[in-house]
Amino acid sequence: MGPKLPLHRHALARIQDLIAEETGAPLRGDARGKLARLLADAFGLSEMPVPTEEFEFTSRDLTILIADLRGFSSISEAYPIETVLHILKPYFARMTEIIVRNFGAIDKFMGDSVMALFEERHIQNSARHAVTCAVEMQLAMDELNRNSKQCGLPELHMGIGINTGRVMAGLVGSGEYSEYVVVGGEVNLASRIEAFSLRGQVLISQSTFECCEDFVLTDKPIEVHVKGLANPVSLREVVAIPSLGREVPRREIRRSIRVKTEISFVYHLVKDKIVDSEPCQGVILDIGYYGVKADLGREVESYSEVRMEIDLSIVGYRATDIYARILRKRTSDGRFLASIEFTSISAKSQAHIRRFVQFLVQGSEGG
User: Fold this and answer.
1) pTM over 0.70
2) Sign of CA dihedral 74, 196, 103, 30
3) ∠ CA 269-271-274 to the nearest 5 degrees?
4) What is the rounded CA–CA span in Å between residue 294 and residue 52?
5) Residue 76 sits in the same domain as residue 109
6) What is the pLDDT of residue 11?
7) Nearest residue to 137 (alpha-carbon basis) of 251, 248, 252
8) What CATH number is attached to the domain comprising 141?
9) What is the rounded CA–CA span in Å between residue 334 and residue 357?
């Protein structure tokens, strides 16, 4: 009887894997117990060897898609919970339908985001299905937004990140509750890529691109710095799938990632190309590659030129050579808010600002 127990365990794990491949999750609870008893009978075991510990994780190649709504926290704060749920219900229903139609399995919903897994015998097919799914999801957002507009509700915009690679998959938990999960560096990278995606954008990793480069049309690669990785990561924005006649809808001009923050900075007014010696203090409220939104701490005329000094502490650099122009401004609750666009900046400072923004955005909501 002893030799049969490992074989039974192996068969049970393999059947659970097959079920998970087809449905997105293995059998759980009573259903898992029934399967174990059936196998016990088949192997002629006198006792029912239902394991008390969880099955070992297995290594799998798949494509991970993570989609998240941009700016949804501000909508949640501005509208009653009933309105928020009224907005989310059709969104999740439509995204679920598109994921399933493209042979994906929903791994989990997380607030206003969704994670889906695509697994095929040939990894190239999983990447194609995931990219097709992402493009269709962005197309569906247009229809959802048209309906929201007719009802007087705010529009939603979504960013999507996709990565392909090897993960570890299996059950975690106990006999009372268990959950099928996928873990590993490739899952983390998919999450990072999603954080970089702007509203209406689909970003894919180099590994996903290599699996479907003859299928998808993308922009030129961009390099970003990802937390936990020593070297920059190459990402591409999906533009279209020519063979299917589908294009990602173009939203408003997206010049760069924008991320909320709160860091003090020093600026000097520039008049007739002369930098005023008197320093002024301000607070940066959000930052992108090419400019910031800031509280200037005092009244400053529109289109004034300034020289800025920004302490980019998390990348160990202080940018002191930024020249900028104050564009839109307004006063709110005693604060002097302004949009500031960089007009002249050294390549070194620009590189550090990009890296600073990339690190910062991975810990907050993109936009």
Assistant:
1) no
2) negative
3) 90
4) 57
5) yes
6) 64
7) 248
8) 3.30.70.1230
9) 28
